[in-house]
Amino acid sequence: MTRLAVPLVLPVAVLLLWQITAARGWLSPQTLPAPALVLSTLIDLIRDGEIATNLQISLRRILVGLAIGTSLGLFAGALLGVSRRMNDYFGPIINALSQIPSLGWVPILILIFGLDETVKYLIIAKACFVPTVLATSQGIRNIPRAYIEVGQVLGLRRRTTLTKLIVPAALPTIFGGIRLALSNAWVALIVVEMLAATEGVGYMMVWGRTLFQVDIVIAGMIVIGVIGLAMDSGLARVERRMRRWEPKNV
Amino acid sequence: MSAVEAFAPRATLNIRDVSKSYVVDEKPLPVLRNIALDVQPGEFVSIVGASGCGKSTLLRLVVGLDADYEGEILLNGRRIEGPGRERGIVFQEHRLFPWLTVEDNIALGLDGSDEPQHVLDKRVRDNIALVGLAGFEKAYPHQLSGGMAQRAAIARSLVTQPAILLLDEPLGALDSITRAYLQKELLRIWQQERVTVIMVTHDVDEAVFLSDRVVVMEPRPGRIRSIVPVGLTHPRQRASVEFARVKGEILRDLSGE
Ligand SMILES: Nc1ncnc2c1ncn2[C@@H]1O[C@H](COP(=O)(O)OP(=O)(O)O)[C@@H](O)[C@H]1O
Ligand SMILES: [Mg+2]
Question: Count of domains in chain B?
Fold first, then answer.
């Protein structure tokens, strides 16, 4: 009971402060509309399908970008993790490229592709690629030698070594990378939609701001927060399932 | 009469003038010097010696995890090359894969075998029963006690039906009661399977209780100081005079007089 209530303490406090601020008129309604107004705006946006349409577009961008970025990341990370040589050749360059924030790529990509969907896919794919590559190669490199030796002594075939040793041993690290990828993707998506889009949740917020409708902006923030949280806890659930062999409550 | 026993092959191991150095700080560190040891089929040989005298290194050479040494290691007259299923090893830590159940861990040793699945399943079951883990097939390693995990590791090494079984301080980390119990179990398994065993231990009592011969090593670099035949019939009485005499001889050799 208390375990459920604890995470709610802060949001409730913020909500309270927000309500008081609005009610006392400490900030003008143009700057900070009352919670009730935001809620009714949110309901309106949901009812007239505005949120559904934009969310659908945003989610498609996320899914396409995530699919491209993580699959390339898994592939490249596996190569770098398995082969020392590959790591020597490509490790540093991937590291250098990953130092450039995803959004640093936006201007040049817009110059090349215009406001095309390609730009969004590429930015999100890049945001997902980096953490996935790093986690995958690190997860594989960090597999204890002790286990590798067991595989050698037992004469495991290549395929069995992959499915019964490498993948399960590296999975927790890789999964951490994918969760980070998702949260990076979410950030990249919203910003890229604010900078270079005509649809999507991020665009909806920019549009709200140009209309001086802060309630729309805040409604957008709420949608982003809720969906982000839902996706992350979904992944956390999958992760727990895959790691059910681990000791509980340690 | 288990099915396992019927097929257990026999092996003669010859370790001929084996020397081994590691490179530490770009300087060679001699670890083993002129090791010579012949082990007969079905024999139980223990190796005792101060820690750091190269016992684990010697087992790693025999199991084929390290080919960088001088001299020869022959199995049935053939030079060993890399790991092979006719040689099994139990490391000091159990090294079970934590993400696999007991039976899946043990079944790893049968990977790629072309026998029918029900035969493989039976071999896994037989080996689980052999080490007394029936009922724990579906348990994960973290759910086992230290002694049970070590028994599962022994089953994993036996499922390949090795001709020779290498044990690296397999009971070293266990409490004395579990240890005494597993020593009896090891004796039973060895007698039942008639597998050739080379066991590293730091427990002289354990070595005398189990072995046909005890190899005493001295350190820096690791050499064989003496090989003491035990020559007592099983089951051995720890309180007996002969037991104490053999033990005393080994301890004297160990302390280097
Ligand atoms: N991979 C290695 N690289 C360098 N030195 C090692 C390595 N493995 C073991 N040694 C050294 O070799 C010596 C023998 O080690 P080991 O065979 O583990 O001894 P024991 O099992 O008898 O305690 C020790 O001095 C140890 O520090
Ligand atoms: Mg050792």
Answer: 1
- Write the pLDDT tens digit of every residue in A99-112: 888 778 888 888 88
Whether B155 is in a domain gets the answer no
What does the pLDDT read at residue A2? 64
Parse chain A into domains and list their residue ranges. 49-243
pLDDT for B79-119, tens place per residue? 998 998 889 999 988 999 999 999 999 999 999 888 898 98
Per CATH, the homologous superfamily of domain A49-243 is MetI-like (1.10.3720.10)
Residues in chain A with pLDDT values less than 50: 250
Q: What is the C-alpha to C-alpha distance for residues B97 and B120, in angstroms, rounded to an integer?
A: 19
Domain extent for B204: 1-84+199-257
Cβ pair B50, B68 in contact under 8 A: no
pLDDT at residue B257 above 60?
no
CA distance A250 to A168: 20
Give the residue on A whose Cα is nearest the Cα of B158: A154
**For the residues B52-59, what does the mean pLDDT come to?**
94
**B169 CA to middle of ligand 2, Å?**
7
ipTM of the complex: 0.88
Is position B229 within any domain? yes
Asked, for residue B80, whether it belongs to a domain, the answer is yes
Residue A225 Cα to ligand 2 middle (Å): 54
Q: Among partner residues A146, A154, A169, which is closest to B108 by beta-carbon distance?
A: A154
Closest residue by CA, ligand 1 atom 16: B54
Burial annotation B181-214 (CB, 10 A radius, 16+ → b, else e) = ebbebbbebbeebebbbbbbbebbbbbbbbbbbb
Flag whether pLDDT at B7 surpasses 80: no
Task: Let me know if residue B233 belongs to a domain.
Answer: yes
Note whether B99 contacts A: Cβ–Cβ < 8 A.
yes
